[in-house]
Specification:
single chain; alpha+beta; two-stranded antiparallel ribbon; two-stranded antiparallel sheet; globular
Length: 68
């Protein structure tokens, strides 16, 4: 199954990104894409773990910390 990131722009202008499992091969580029969206959009960022996620972990890359 291909890796997917769903992008939704809500009525209040919030940009919502949703991703299921991202393969190891695409993980770094997916993170870079999400960092670029964050930088361009500005404002606060909220990261929520999906209820159906099998497991989660936190890590950081330089100044950017996030959860999966």
């Amino acid at each position: 199954m291909p890796d997917k990131i769903k992008i939704t722009i809500l009525e209040d202008g919030t940009i919502k990104l949703e991703a299921d499992k991202i393969s190891q091969a695409n993980h770094v580029s997916a993170e870079a894409f999400m960092r670029e969206i964050k930088k361009l959009a500005g404002g606060p960022v909220t990261i929520t773990k999906a209820a159906h996620a099998e497991h989660g972990h936190s890590h950081s890359h330089g100044q950017d910390a996030h959860q999966h």
